[in-house]
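Task 17 of the worksheet. Students: predict the tertiary structure of the chain below and write it out as structure tokens. Keep your answer in the requested format; marks are given for formatting as well as content.
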Amino acid sequence: KIIWPHHVEPAPAILVTNPKDARFSIPSKEPLWRIRQSCHIRFLVFSNETTDTLQVEILIDGKLHPHEASFVGDTKNPLWAAAWDPSVFEDRKPHQLTVRVTTADGKVGVSNTVFRVDTHRIKIGGGSGEFIIKSKMSTVVSRTGSPASV
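Model answer:
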């Protein structure tokens, strides 16, 4: 006889889509200038709970964000948004965005995003991997692999 453990409900999983995390941005390949023109913080919340039972809290640099988040998605697109003014953060410094989602039974999901409005990337000490991501590797490979360069 097999005795299965009871089903464990996970905490909500959160994916911030705007602003882009500056640690993982690629300025040469992404339109990061759009962050300063955006009017909403956007994020996806994956949870088995219904959206009306979720409590969402947004903090920027440890301070409660003045605009509430609202569910703007549908059953296939769990998108949430909160109004914001990116010009407030245009000081050439990194800022920390924290999104915390709590379910009715107390499970908490947290996402931390470091962002910049000035399109600069934050170095994460990734060594050669960081260099490869930042570079235009297709240009490097096509020049070194061509018969003319041999």
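Marker's comment: The mean pLDDT is 88. Residues 127-134 form the longest helix (8 residues).
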